Predict the 3D structure of the following.
Amino acid sequence: MLVAGFISIRPDHDPLINDVRKATSTGKWVLIVHTDTSNKADQAQQLMEPFAASTTATL
């Protein structure tokens, strides 16, 4: 179990988690998009940027 816990540590997710907590605590909505390629992630970010207060990406 210790090894599984160590593997599941994702420090790259910390900025995302902090932004989600901050947004929801101020009554804002959060949309999380999970894609299978970085190209699709870039497309999703480009589509949302004109409408979003902020965007955050992880690895």
